[in-house]
TrEMBL record:
Keywords linked to the UniProt accession: Amino-acid transport, ATP-binding, Cell membrane, Membrane, Nucleotide-binding, Transport
Acyltransferase is among the record's keywords: no
Superkingdom of origin organism: Bacteria
This protein's name: Amino acid ABC transporter ATP-binding protein, PAAT family
PANTHER family noted in UniProt: AMINO ACID IMPORT ATP-BINDING PROTEIN (PTHR43166), GLUTAMATE_ASPARTATE IMPORT ATP-BINDING PROTEIN GLTL (PTHR43166:SF9)
Topology term for the membrane: Peripheral membrane protein
Membrane spanning residue stretches: none
GO cellular component: plasma membrane
PROSITE patterns given in the database record: ABC_TRANSPORTER_1, ABC_TRANSPORTER_2
Domain (ABC transporter) ranges: 2-223
Subcellular location: Cell membrane
Family: Belongs to the ABC transporter superfamily.
Keyword Transport (UniProt): yes
Amino acid sequence: MIKVRNINKSFKGIQVLEDVSFDLEQGEILSIIGPSGAGKTTLLRTINALEKCDNGNIYIDDKCLCKDGEYIKGKELREIRRDLSFVFQSLNLFPHMTVMENISEAVINVLEVNKADALKKCAEILKNLGLEEKENSYPYELSGGQRQRVAIGRALAMEPKYICFDEPTSALDPSLTCEVANIIKGLAKDGIGILIITHDMEFVSKVSTRVLELGSGKVKVTN
Ligand SMILES: Nc1ncnc2c1ncn2[C@@H]1O[C@H](COP(=O)(O)OP(=O)(O)OP(=O)(O)O)[C@@H](O)[C@H]1O
Ligand SMILES: [Mg+2]
């Protein structure tokens, strides 16, 4: 379970996150919604230690990522990060790498799986995402929805316990949105905990098992 407890974050004296607390269990799809500027991306970044919250605690299963705003570092942080994958709005695909290279790079270099096994595992993921024919394509040769699926594949290849998505539908048309919704539901069925940060209410109602609202700092339960 990801446990976020009473986190606060200010930028230059302006409070963006105020006393935010929530839990995310494996197998559930939690959506956190809120207007532009409500602090959604900031919240996601604090869970990955890309941004430090000012105070509060964050636990990933039995491990403490952050206590009273103090984050763990080095090897311990790298270990916790293995359980979490992030799919950012900008996707952050490597433009000079093929689809297969994008997906397998961290499997080989971070998980230290040997290349042949990594390629086999990633080929299976590409097949499940309907991208088997795009293995050797570069990101610029793909549609927006295909790029989105590559980013999901790259997250999945790390075999995380949790995947956090920032605005997963922002580049997608309605039919692709439906496709990504089905992929996400399948991931949750496989026991992955999904955190979605978005303002796409239609998507939220399609996929979520729980919704929290982030507005004026506070998170409140809406269903
Ligand atoms: N590094 C930073 N330095 C200063 N202010 C920041 C920084 N990052 C975010 N902010 C401010 O914090 C507030 C929340 O930003 P954030 O990106 O988390 O919002 P959001 O809810 O994700 O919005 P959107 O829906 O537009 O993506 C904004 O007012 C933003 O300007
Ligand atoms: Mg954002």
